[in-house]
Amino acid sequence: MSENPTEGVSTLYGDPKKAILKLSMPMMFAMFVSSLYALVDGIWVGGLGDLSIAAVGFINPLYLIVMGFSNGLGAGATSVISRYIGARDKKQVDNSGIHVLLLTAILSIMFTVVLTLLLHPILIYMSVDNRIMDISLSYGQILFLGSIFIVFTSTAYGILRAEGNVKKATYGLLIGSILNMILDPIFIYPMGLGVFGAGLASVLSLSFVSILLVYWFKKETYIDFSLKNFNFQWHLIKKILSVGIPAGTEMLIVAFLNFFLNSILLIVNDIQGVAVYNAGWRFVMVALVIPMAIGTSTVAVVGANYGAKKFENIKVIYNYSIKFGLLMVTLMAMFIFIFAPQISYLFAYLPGLADIRNLISEFLRVICLFYFFVPLGISASSVFQGVGKGLSSLFITAIRLLIFEIIFTYFLAIVCGFGQYGVWYGIVLGNGFGSVFAYFYTRRFIKKLNKKESIV
Question: Against a cut of 0.90, is the pTM above it?
Fold first, then answer.
């Protein structure tokens, strides 16, 4: 740890536009490599056939819940710690960091117990087909036994982002992802472990990164995690959870949406529709890395400026993060649209999967329209998380996903009878309308915040 402001903390104190750019670029690269792991994982699993793809697809909503609340706790850490950094209150910076670790331990125990003991009945409730039940169980059980590593790495990255220490967060993501990509094919094929091997590779990679993060926390961070700095305070728990729980619930909404879309696809196109969507969505997540990286950096920069009571900078941060995000996703969307047929081969390279390959290519091209609205929604959520208004962030996410996307996908796929194409276009239209709503809602909040400052 360091008593003096580190390079990252000094960045948070500086120009907000430069801070967004400086924090976003390394995170973008690291998260891109991390998402490549998910992509490569999908490629290796794809070699096991469509049943394995679908089986992993049904575990994904549950994994999103774990990741969602883990990242949510990380967002709470980023928000609270960065605000105290902005207020230059080192004592509460340290104390907040230790509170985050306490909550990390509690959340890890909860997920491990619930998702290992109750996985089978949960999958039955999700209407998982008997043909893939055993495959889903083998993948899910080993994955969720490693919940402690999933939760800790996510919250640790949130702590590092809070102090602007994106280098360490970047290194952790890179090391974990590369190690995972190396272990995946070894465990899946030569060792003959199938999807269980994919889950095992993830757990072992995260455990290694967790050890590395603990070492950094002891030696190389601005925050001092020594117990001598710990003073239990309920208001700190409430502050962290006021962002963490809504942010985690946002991912719960995403998981529910994923479950809903899988269910609709089963109705309109059986397991093939689920396989196409889940395979294609893995590549979509690669493109989403760009606005997500900008969004995670925005939380820290907004938090620091809010803590320093520089409310006028929040509008600057919001507008810049949207413009930067739109520029980057436009370039990514153009690339995906042009190379969609080639990309589809990554997920369905076996000779007998030509039909799925063509559908994945079509899916990727339709979803290109989806990317243009994403920066509006993610940047809006990041602003509210940064100022500690987690419920407002949850509200606009619920509007986007629970209201607009579900309505449009159900209407186009079922009512209009467009099948899986209706699901694809429903995702685009629902996210588009929801993101525009989020944009104007956030603009209104920032305007009120600046008026309040001028009155004071």
Answer: no
